Automatic annotation (TrEMBL):
It is a peripheral membrane protein. InterPro entries: Lipase, Lipase_LIPH, Lipase_N, TAG_lipase. Its main location: membrane. Residues 1-20 form the signal peptide. The lineage of its organism: Eukaryota, Metazoa, Chordata, Craniata, Vertebrata. It comes from Solea senegalensis. Keywords: Cell membrane, Disulfide bond, Glycoprotein, Hydrolase, Lipid degradation, Lipid metabolism, Membrane, Secreted, Signal. Hydrolyzes specifically phosphatidic acid (PA) to produce 2-acyl lysophosphatidic acid (LPA; a potent bioactive lipid mediator) and fatty acid. Does not hydrolyze other phospholipids, like phosphatidylserine (PS), phosphatidylcholine (PC) and phosphatidylethanolamine (PE) or triacylglycerol (TG). One of its GO terms (cellular component) is extracellular space. Pfam families: Lipase. Belongs to the AB hydrolase superfamily. Lipase family. Residues 38-328 form the Lipase domain. CDD domains: Pancreat_lipase_like. It catalyses: 1-hexadecanoyl-2-(9Z-octadecenoyl)-sn-glycero-3-phosphate + H2O = 2-(9Z-octadecenoyl)-sn-glycero-3-phosphate + hexadecanoate + H(+). This is Lipase member H-like.
Amino acid sequence: MFPWSYLTLFLLIAAQVNKAQRCAEFTDLNLGHAFLGTSVKVRLLLYTRENSTCATLLSHSNLSACPQLNLSRPTTFIIHGYRPTGSPPVWVHDLTDLVLARKDVNVIVVDWNHGAANVNYLKVVENTKKAGANITAFIEKMQEHGGSPSSIHMIGVSLGAHISGFVGANLNGSIGRISALDPAGPQFTGTGPEDRLDPTDAEFVDVLHTDMDALGYREPLGHIDFYANGGADQPGCPKTIFSGTSYFKCDHQRSVGLYLGSLNHTCASRAFPCSSNTDFLDGKCLSCDQFGAAGCPVFGYDVTQWKSILLKLGQTKTFFTTNAESPYCITGYQVDVMIWNMEPRQGYITIKLHYNGTEAVANIDHKSSEFKKNKETRLFAQFDKDVEQVEKVSVKFSTGKPFQPKYKLRILRIRLTHLELQATALCRYDVTLEENSDVTFRPIPCEESNF
């Protein structure tokens, strides 16, 4: 029996070694490669539900050599961006797994680390069109074997978003969908459509902006453009350079985190069409009538449910707000306040919703709101979580001026309307708020006859 145990161990080790030899891995480079510079070399790593943990390296010229590539299935390409240190993207396996969990597709991870790893960013930008040409040639091979460009979804991150656009343009916009996650801004801002992503590059182009004031692109690029938290500074990201490299990349990388959240069903972020983030936060853009019964689009993987109407609308610019961590989604309420103070009041409102020990908080503090007697002031309250049912509500008023006399806000009526459940508006009548003090009450269903 003793020799057999050694044989078993040997066979197990041999199996693991054989598997390691068969599984293609993403190219792992280092800072040395980046300093020396790398030229473009594109490797295509195939994952399917049958080999979800073990990639197959695809041949650019001989598709029949890889029977795992089933062209009767849709295909999703995942394309990374700039890799200044040469390391593989930490998110690529999570994104692959979640896409495969959602749909039976071919997932092709485009590994262009040779070409993306270079301290000279300008050289990497030059390499994007070369990478795009390489991927285009591969898709043309897919077409020769019966594959359809309309069944292709390209998910491009940063520079990968523009590479997706180049591929789409090379194929005359026949690609089914491009999802662009914070498309790169430097060297692309101000260029023409032929040198960047644009809506004609695919049948449907959806774009997320999270760092438009630094590494990302500011202007709309797709049929629908989502601006998370205004599109620039993301909650929870460092505000000073003393935080190290995270200060530079956190906002940019948040785009991937938000997209992963849309894939794993943790929550849904409703996005509202608006001309600016200021108007959005002021509650001026809460109507979703133009989208019919489906309501305003939900950010992320499932936005194709709104594809037909978005194509008719042309370019739609939308805004949504998130939490600092997963689950990122917030819960929106329209809040209407009418006071009976003789003099106008200026200040900020904090609202808490209570249910069964759970507390959801919304700080309406992006600017000071103005309240006037017998005039309804509309606010947009964005709560950090949803509550199953509202048992109690706490409201606090503050002027934000600690060294001035404290004021009271005499509320004639406050009405809270859940934006997803508009038939369940809750009200409270005749309540006085002492500045900086929470007032808690049980709301009742609103009755217009009371006014």
